[in-house]
Amino acid sequence: MDKIIFLVNPNAGNKELITNVDAVSRRFQEIADKIEICHTSRPGDSARIIGEQGACADLVIAVGGDGTVHECVNALAKLRNPPLFAMLPGGTCNDFARTLGISQDYREAVEQIIHLKERKVDIGKHGDRYFLNFWGIGLITQVSEEIRGDLKEKFGRLSYYLSAVQTLNHQEAFELDIEADTAAFKGKATMVLVGNGSFIGGVNAYFPQSSVTDGWLDVLIFKEVSFSSFWSMLTSYLTTEEPEGKDLVYFHAKKVRVKTTPPLKVDCDGEKNSYTPVTLSILPGHLRMVVGDDKALNERKGYQDP
Ligand SMILES: [Mg+2]
Asked: Is the whole model's pTM more than 0.85, yes or no?
């Protein structure tokens, strides 16, 4: 290929990867004539660089955590002919990399990416923004807000669950009105998760059967987050079963309209800057991405069009 652009977030958690990014990029000289390394200095830089130069690159590699990848996906989704996209995991959870079967060890990830195995991957849309992994309201927004920095550093992905268990004790239900192309729900709820990918907080706990190549969003409504339904959700990731329980509503959809009373803050791929009401939809096969281990993609287990 002609040109690869590396978008590097120098503040990403994996300092070893950031320090070695020049050496890593040299590894790609065998597949590209030109390699450009761009260090970002503030949120919005990755999106700006993709907007300016994305169309003339063959491959964009994001080096950073989920925040960096989310920004890149939003910028790439707007291009008429987006380049191939890959990620070198440098954050705490690296949910996107897990979703695409990319190794958490950056040296292994480099060897996976250099093979350029690509898939057309679905992305979700809410309002004028895009997401690769999940969209959520209710408990999920409290969970991520309440993680203390020291806890996150010490316990990594486990801190999300420690925080979730604490949050269960003091959260309130809201009025939910959901209309999808395949189902509807009206009533009290404590959390709604809409998944494209399957990983949230580093664990494949919410949508063990979901696939980013099946053209469907997975919708999970928690009518009441008792400890037992939370536990059944966690244990469902140890099996291959779909989430089930009396407090859960689970279905697949291509378009979902969500209204709540009161309006709620949205957590979308970890970014929290919008509120309900909103309409979500799926853009099947919208971006070309480099993938690693096929098994992680869940392609065979994905929900079939009825
Ligand atoms: Mg899907």
From this structure: no
